[in-house]
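Quick start: what a row looks like.
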Amino acid sequence: MAKKKQFVLRIDPEKYEALDKWAADEFRSINGQIEWIIDRALKQAGRSKAKNSSDSEQ
């Protein structure tokens, strides 16, 4: 597995709570949910190569 970059994300409490609930609803960590959102946005914008066909949207 490739090493992942780390960075600080500042987010307002309301968005964090919404993200936390969304992640819990989909049985993901908040970090996993953010990564999933970014991956989906990059693919939709045509800015990402498809890594895995198993990573398709749910």
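That is the whole record. The chain is about 50% helix and 0% strand. Residues 30-44 form the longest helix (15 residues).
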